Amino acid sequence: MIRPVPLFHLNEMNDRASVTLTSLTVSYLIMATAAAIMIAWITEEWTLFIPSMLLLGGVFATFVGFRQRTGAFDRRRSNDGNFLMFWGTLLMAFGIIWAINYAYPGNVFFLVIGFLVWLGLAVLLFTLKKK
Questions:
Q1: Residue 12: per-residue pLDDT
Q2: Contacts for 107 with CB less than 8 Å, ≥ 6 apart
């Protein structure tokens, strides 16, 4: 007898987890876009839309990477969590640097130094081996 396959249930439990993670990502990015539009509209400065999206997207990627790194999502290895955490914090750093440069223009030199310090710490912390 042939049984129909449900729309979102493929062959393994891991596939259901990926669909859940995908739908979570899409729904979060829709809400982050709405929040970034609201921030730009309230401040009447549409150039703040991009750093808001970078910051909100970075927060989400860091959260998912942290969950993968600690083993909450079993189908991925902790290296994938490190990868997501690095890129999430990178997006957050770019968003914060952009926002600080907007609020306090003329400090590009110090922002570049701050970014280089963040980059050095990130490489150091994300390459440490767990015992």
A1: 45
A2: 100, 101
